Amino acid sequence: MFTVEIMLFDLDGTLIDSRADLARSVNLMLEELSRPALDEETVAGFVGDGVRVLVYRSLTATHPEGRPPDDFLHADGIALMHKHYAEQMFVNTCLYAGVAETLAHFKDKRKAVVTSKEVRFTEMILERFAVAKHFDCIIGGDTVAERKPDPRPVLEAINRLGGKAEETVMIGDTENDVIAGRRAGTLIAAASYGFRSAEELHKTSPDVMIERFDQLKDFFC
User: Which of 4, 32, 35, 149 could form a disulfide with 62 if both were Cys (CB 3.0 to 4.6 A apart)?
Assistant: First the structure.
């Protein structure tokens, strides 16, 4: 059992299951750009580095010769992705089981969301699912210049919460979360129920692996 004072959470694949809505938004973007659709699993594998990288990877994957988009196409794709995601983000997205109850269990801990998603979308999601009250701040992909796996978003959250890395756990479902937490000096809990497999996450050697969100109660106090 680890004692922590600060808990930092990734969003997509950790707090919320947004896989279907992200894939639908990507495919609506691709359709407008006369590109073929991608399957949900492929899109999920592209998630984790923010919308710019998601669009870049999707456009590269759907080019007949695997060529990356030029700046103009990339910008068009990002604008379309923002438009479609704003319309699609609550069609199927939901909290993972046990999230609300587990966040309430840790009511005495300082908590933040550290995500590559823009703050405005993150705020809308947390409010929609009535869990915004559990978080003291949000560090989004547009909060600091760098994104995970760079440690600076994690360090920014710790600084805003007035804590120390050694009393913090970073909880996320991708290698970026693990690497960012490790570089920042935090404990790391990897969520194998999200967008990466347990096998992929084991390679990053997290301190703890959880198969359900509520298992955080078994490892942290």
Answer: 35
